[in-house]
Write a structure and sequence with these properties.
193 residues
Length: 193
């Protein structure tokens, strides 16, 4: 198994089966999520996706699931995996909302491009941290601050008020930060023994 000890009654093949089941579940859920707009198009005229919409959404799902799978292969630390999952979910939802309807005004409002800066803070922070849990915790906290800063800027310049969405995203980024910090503590504790 990756980075962990097999417990009593478990074997390497049990761990491999569990990981295989998780992979199938993650990719299966992604496929179902990709089919949701197609189903919605059959039920309402409000949803009108074209091939490009499906390609972009599918590409986003592949990037998110592939990144998570890579993180899962690199470490067996559950807190680290959960932190990556939460951060990827936050990034995915942020991009999806911006492309679909926009957060500030509508999807055509150029002010929404500030959210690209939020993602850049997280990505640059992760690279500076070399994806180590302690630094990743700091990177996600900085991303939460960047998210809140966009809302403050939007409010100050009169672009609208996004309190509920800001609280939602800040909570996701801070949850990820907390999980990365937990992973760092577990890593340090394992290193002592």
């Amino acid at each position: 198994m990756h980075g962990g000890k097999a417990g009593a009654g478990t074997t390497e093949s049990d761990g491999g089966r569990r990981e295989g089941a998780w992979r199938i579940a993650i990719w299966g859920i992604a496929a179902l999520v990709l089919l949701l707009p197609l189903l919605a198009m059959q039920l309402t005229e409000e949803v009108a996706w074209d091939l490009a919409d499906f390609a972009i959404f599918g590409g986003m799902l592949v990037a998110a699931c592939g990144t998570y799978e890579l993180a899962a292969r690199v470490t067996g630390n559950r807190a680290y995996r959960a932190a990556v999952g939460v951060a990827l979910a936050a990034a995915f939802i942020l991009v999806w909302m911006n492309l679909a309807v926009g957060i500030i005004g509508n999807e055509k409002n150029p002010a929404n491009s500030m959210y690209g800066g939020v993602l850049a803070v997280g990505l640059i922070g992760a690279m500076i941290a070399r994806f180590q849990p302690q630094g990743m915790g700091r990177a996600m906290a900085a991303t939460a601050l960047a998210q809140a800063s966009v809302a403050v800027i939007a409010l100050i310049v009169g672009l609208g008020y996004t309190l509920i969405l800001t609280v939602f995203f800040v909570a996701l980024w801070l949850t990820s930060a907390g999980l990365f910090r937990r992973a760092a503590r577990e890593q340090a504790h394992a290193g002592v023994h």
